[in-house]
Amino acid sequence: MLKVTKKAANRVDLEVSGRIDSEEMAKGLDDLLHLSEDVNEGVMLYKITTFAFPDFGALAAEFARLPKLFGLLGRFDRCAVLSDAAWIRTAAEVEGALFPGLEIKAFDLDEEEAAEAWLGGVSAQPEKTSEDA
Known about the structure:
Elements: E1 2-8, E2 11-18, H1 22-35, E3 42-51, H2 56-64, H3 66-72, E4 76-83, H4 86-98, E5 103-108, H5 112-119, E6 128-129
Parallel strand pairs: 2-3, 3-4, 4-5
Antiparallel strand pairs: 1-2, 1-6
Helix pairs in contact: 1-2
Pfam families: SpoIIAA-like (PF11964)
Protein name: SpoIIAA-like
């Protein structure tokens, strides 16, 4: 599952669980791009549970959108990554060091309150979800 939700004008949340196929990846990334169009100085909560490596088609869908995805980096200032896998949390923090201007901090799944506080408490009711897009 890949679900994208716009929680506020400057907040987009992603939720990933299980294995993602090409169709789901394409839709999720298109939703992310669409819902992030008007975000400035944004924050993102990225929740990853029971991660399974995406299939080849899903990776191809992501690679096809890489230029647009890199364009999103300037729209977001902070990204909190919640995951039940230590290696994902470590990878997220390493990734954060590679992108100047985007601060990435990783949290265990049971630290959602701390992640919200770190993001600045931007946790309004959803404006739009990927189902609305």
